[in-house]
Amino acid sequence: MTDIRTYLKEGAPLLFDGAMGTYFASLPGRAEERCELAAIDHPEEVSSIHRAYLAAGCRAIKTDTFTVSVDLAQGREDLARRIVEASCRLARECAGDYGAYVFADIGPAPENRSLTRAENYCRQADLFLEQGIRCFLLETLPSDHGLRKLAQYLKSRCPEAFLITSFAVSFDGATREGDFGQTLLQRTAALEEIDAVGFNCVSGPHHLLEYVRGLGKNGITLSVMPNAGYPTVSGRRTVFQGTPKYFGQKLAEICQAGARIVGGCCGTTPAHIAAARAALAAPPRLTYPVSRDRESGEARSAASVNTLAEKLDSGRRVVAVELDPPVDDDISFFLEGVRDLRDAGADAVTIADCPIGRPRADSSLLACKLKRELDIEPLPHMTCRDRNLNATKALLLGLSIEQVHNVLLVTGDPIPSEDRDAVKSVFNFNSRRLAAYVTGLNETVLQTPFRIFGALNVNAVNFEVQLRAAQEKEDSGVAGFLTQPVLSREAADNLITARRTLRGHILGGIYPVVSHKNACFLNNEIAGMRICDEIVSLYEGKDREAAEDLAVTISTRIAGEIAPYVDGFYLMTPFRRVALMVRILQKLRSRGV
Predict the structure, then answer these.
(1) Is the pLDDT reported for residue 547 higher than 90?
(2) pLDDT at 241
(3) Nearest to 198 by CA among 144, 250, 135
(4) ∠ CA(19), CA(126), CA(227), 5° rounding?
């Protein structure tokens, strides 16, 4: 049998089989059964599926083991071993009659505290190597977590092993975890232990063809295995309506666009693979235009101005003031407050995204209104709560269209416990993954990139953990941080440490405490706040006027103390007291802080 590397260099594209799971589920009485258990419970049916694909003309088949990663993650190692042993035996028996390659099929591993993705993949590698398997396909991956360690481990155990990694991207090129396929492709292809990389599942053949064309010729051994199309529901069944002839022609075009390894994913059948085999054997009959991308020279609108980013990049100290959005549709106070803050010297206004999980007017819609009507740079907060990937991208595109180009990304507070029966949180990713996703949009879609900010809790008990998280955020594209209030010596020291450690801009947090009661409440009931005893004691016995005078004094003093270590200030407005913030802004400007 020809070595697979020699085959890929000299022969036709390597044609894989199609779907196992959706095909098995279409058999009578099998819709509710787990496909991977069929190798144990219904081996004759699994063999029949393998042989149908081989007879259709494929040269490589996958073992029936896609969800073994879940078994291992849940501690069912004995079951995982039984599935692997049975599946490998069946696949090798069938492939031997056709001289086809057998690939270990490994699906995405769940995140698990007791077993990392890398550990999960490496355990599966051991199980397959014990069965004599030397070719591996990791498919439908949402990220590259664990791939480096697996690739290095596999090649250390078996230097001749052949490893394909395949990511699941939507038609716009993003995975469900917010990573962009082009970035994953480049990062993975750079690992010398990985032999081929590409995409499968989620998208139909047309969209993966268009996506592959946009990648250009890059010298990568590219693998592409699309779905038969997109699923629809018929009765109680999910079906794919893509026809074999259409699929086969698109797969041939994908090969013309640069793929060396092709096959089918969800919804494909032996008929789809037979059509692909025929289309691949036919002479090419189409030519294709050069892909349209951001470097193609097409006319594009000029990038718009981001004055907040320009001020920071020029070294000018900036002041951003946070004002909570209204709880109803009366926006008069909010607009008047922003106008007063702007006139007093604020460079930007930040708007929280439903703080503490309570609904308020949408921060992004308010940001657009402020930009249009008051010509001040808004900095809307964007949480990972309550939006999936599609909603997040749609919102970001809308912000960019409205000339809002700064966002503060935070994971977000959970829904209050008393509301959880009626209101459900949605968390598709954390702030680091969201930052990486926005960075991907900056690089691939947007005319004017977002300036991405993150939060930094200088009051954290274990600040080293916060600092490591901040560094990870920077690696994901965060360019600056807004800190929690500095109201203690420990917070100031942590801020100094952050300045020495982080690359991005830092806006030091300033919160004017307005009463002794306010100080006690913040210290005891609000996460991320720490007010030193000295400041708390200063408010004892003060009436409102005296307390506000003290707040101005303390806030400007702290601003002066941290000024050498920050690029600006982040002022938080308590209890809608805009007049107090105006006084602090005027004081800062008069003192040149």
Answers:
(1) yes
(2) 72
(3) 144
(4) 15
Number of domains in the chain: 2
Q: Within a domain: residue 131?
A: yes
Q: In sequence order, what E strands does 352-456 have?
A: 377-383, 406-410, 451-456
Give the pLDDT confidence score for residue 293 in this predicted structure.
45
Cβ neighbours around 158 below 10 Å, total: 16
Cβ 43 vs Cβ 93: under 8 Å: no
Q: Roughly how many angstroms between the first and final C-alpha of the chain, as a whole number?
A: 76
**Which of 249, 259, 250, 170 is closest to 215 using CA atoms?**
259
Evaluate if residue 295 carries a pLDDT over 50.
no
Q: How many residues does the chain have?
A: 593
* Residue 102, beta-bridge partner list: 61
As a whole number of angstroms, the distance between CA 195 and CA 6 comes to 12
Q: Is the dihedral of CA 580, 585, 590, 593 positive or negative?
A: positive
**Residue 475 domain boundaries:** 314-591
Within this chain, do residues 238 and 335 fall inside the same structural domain, yes or no? no
Chain centroid offset of residue 456 CA: 20
Which amino acid appears at position 585 of this protein? L
Q: What are φ and ψ of residue 220, in 5° steps?
A: -85, 140
Element (H, E) at 81: helix 77-96
Residue 291, domain member (yes or no): no
Strand locations in 82-179, DSSP E?
101-106, 135-141, 162-167
Q: Are residues 327 and 226 in the same domain?
A: no
What are the residue ranges of helices labelled H in 99-204? Answer: 117-130, 147-157, 181-189
> What integer is the mean pLDDT of 451-465?
95
Structure-token match 């060396």, residue found = 260
What's the predicted TM-score (pTM) here?
0.73
Round to whole Å and give the CA distance between 49 and 64.
10
Nearest partner of 446 among 500, 495, 401, judged by Cα: 401
The β-bridge relationship of strands 237-240 and 231-234 is antiparallel
What is the C-alpha to C-alpha distance for residues 33 and 544, in angstroms, rounded to an integer?
69
On whether the CB atoms of residues 486 and 545 are closer than 8 A, the answer is: no
